[in-house]
Amino acid sequence: MSHESLGTDVSVGPPSTRLPADHPDITVAALLGDDGGVVDVRDVDALRSAAAAHPDSSLAWALLARTELDGIAEDGDAVAADAVTAYAYARVGYHRGLDALRRAGWRGQGPIPVSHPANRGFLAALLALGDAARALGEVEEATRIAEFVDQSDPTAPAVLASGVPVGEAPATTGAE
């Protein structure tokens, strides 16, 4: 169910959930820095250090998953993609994100806008989990995850396709 407005005073559907501005994903994004407007993922050791220092960060786990899926090494050379490792990293990020969303008032449904920087780590983990599930042949799980992404914010795949934006996300129409 989407969050729509009937006039100015009546809302239909659950409200959008926004993780707090002091969420560990914000810290991790700052630690990793900016590479062309997106969080820098070129240094895998830095990603691992970020995950170890901030294990509650969905973003750190999502980026580790993505490096496994994309076969990125810190020196820029491609390495063999590892869907099993990617799945494990993404699953950790997904569960850390669910915990954070619940603490922020989310009750299992409703928009999780990608335009809000603190939400991006969870959505990136969710997308990585779907990609890893697909790579492992888990088609039903990948389909369920795609539906979850669409219910959370249908613009998330487009916004996160080229990496996790630093600061404000590109303008899109979606779940807000």
UniProtKB/TrEMBL annotation:
Residues 1-21 are annotated as: Disordered. This is DUF3151 domain-containing protein. The lineage of its organism: Bacteria, Bacillati, Actinomycetota, Actinomycetes, Micrococcales.
